Amino acid sequence: FREGQVDAIMAYLSGKDTFVSLKTGGGKTLCYALSAICFEGLTIVFSPLKALMDDQKRELINAGIPCATLYANLLQGASIQEKIFEEIACGLIKILFVTPEKLASNNGFCRFITQLYEQKKVHFVIDEAHCILEYQDFR
After folding, report:
1. Is 134 helix (H, G, I), strand (E, B) or coil?
2. Helicase ATP-binding domain: from which residue to which, for each copy (predicted)?
3. Does domain 40-131 have CATH number 3.40.50.1820?
4. What's the sign of the alpha-carbon dihedral 44, 45, 48, 51?
């Protein structure tokens, strides 16, 4: 492990809000990926960078960690998104990468997250937080 990773993982697993600031390639993904494996629910990673989301998803799937991506735009059909929600409900997905716009623009998704939150079955990660200039402005 690199400096700070074990402390971040342990804090996260003990239920504490955790802020991890590491340089690019410093191991932030490992912190939330290991935590997600140990957590019974879903870890939602909000990221404004679709290419990064796709790269992280590919790497995690190759490592045996089931994950998926949801975008706000229409690049994904409703049937794909419904399949993702079904897999989440069955516990087949551990990490869900989501664009911030998906949360801001989809009431159904917000209700879904709220249900998970009320059941204490969801954790949140804000990736690339430095891209957030102000509330609801991620670009």
Report:
1. strand
2. 9-139
3. no
4. negative
Q: Tokens 């989301």 map to which residue?
A: 53
pLDDT higher at 67 or 78: 67
Q: Per-residue confidence at 64, pLDDT binned at 50, 70, 90?
A: very high
Kindly state the helix (H) or strand (E) to which residue 75 belongs, with its residue range. Answer: none
**C-alpha 67, offset from chain centre:** 9
| pTM, two decimal places | 0.90
Please report the beta strands in the chain, taking only residues with DSSP state E, as ranges in sequence order. 42-46, 67-70, 95-98, 122-126
∠ CA 59-60-62, nearest 5°, is 65
Q: What is the pLDDT of residue 60?
A: 98
The structural domains of the chain, with segments of one domain joined by +, span: 40-131
